[in-house]
Amino acid sequence: MTAALIIAEGRIFIAQRPLHKKYGGLWEFPGGKVESGETLQEALYREIIEELCWKVRVGELLHRVRDPGQAAGVELYAFWCSIAEGNLCLREHIDHYWALLEELHRFPFTQPDQKIISFLQKLKRLPDRCPDP
Q1: Is the pLDDT of residue 122 over 80?
Q2: How far apart are CA 2 and CA 81, in angstroms?
């Protein structure tokens, strides 16, 4: 699984999951499953186009967490990203927000994303731009 840490102007993009899906109503960093033959970066790029209508530049891997909610030991790879082009359209999510790092604690996140947030908070601030891979 992949997650996009999309940054712009000192804020990070978060999205709210649809109510009828697993973890409905919780917030997350958008992303998704890796299909056969894809790299993690290719999967993330594809998922963001499908979910948000954005083409992103996938940068450096920030963190990897194991999803405790999955019996098979699924791992979530969180990459820094920036918007390359496109206009936002929510095809999968019901809401979105550009959060400051210190605001993230106000939102109920999925458990794997909470672990990413804990790691982000150790950084003290978000990078000004997407770090290169």
Answers
A1: yes
A2: 12
